[in-house]
Amino acid sequence: MASSAEQGDKYRDFMYGEGEKDTVWRFGAPPNYDVVNKLFEEGRTQVWPVGSLEERVQRLVKTWEMELVHKVRPEDYKSINPQKFRLSLNGKEGLTVQQIRDMGGSYNAFLQTSLPPELRIYDPSVETAESSGKEFATTFPRGFAVEILQVLSGPPVIVYKFRHWGYMEGPFHGHAPTGEVVQFIGTGIFHVDDGMRVEKVEFFYERGDFLAGFLKGGPLESILASGSRCPIMNA
């Protein structure tokens, strides 16, 4: 089977072709989404017709996430207006592209918290882009997929419901893998310009419910001390 790097990605734009010949990629080349695309296709609850509003919004969601994570220079963004871009979570003040970079990337931006450090399952104040990326890649070896469940309004203010999910098949911050789905459902609002470039993103979701899913397997230290084996490795 040909890889996405050979044919282009089925669900994301602005990764290959002449328009990306000068793009600076975080890891030296466009990312390959074959594994998470497979997870998406196997686990999605909706299959939107190509060209429908829902399919176009889903493609935009996947594309801007890809650009924000993998493109080093804001001038290489094509789905985002970097000069106007702001990202806000649950009504908090919007973050610029530079602020997201300064706080260690998108995982840390999405998992902001006001809890005291001793109560944090995941502490974005001490994680870097490298450590957070490695952590979630270990926890979700098949990736962390996103789908659009419903589009409530079209451009220029796009309101939609989304679902993000993955299988916890690796440890997370000292907690044992369960093999179970960890997911969250939320609402997103995109403010786009005439060229469908994202100028403002607002997300509303329950951060705590998502992170609580990582605790079900219990602390690895306790499991190892008791002689038990990893839950998903039991025969």
UniProtKB/TrEMBL annotation:
<dbReference type="InterPro" id="IPR032710">
    <property type="entry name" value="NTF2-like_dom_sf"/>
</dbReference>
<protein>
    <submittedName>
        <fullName>(wild Malaysian banana) hypothetical protein</fullName>
    </submittedName>
</protein>
<dbReference type="InterPro" id="IPR053218">
    <property type="entry name" value="Pathogen-related_defense"/>
</dbReference>
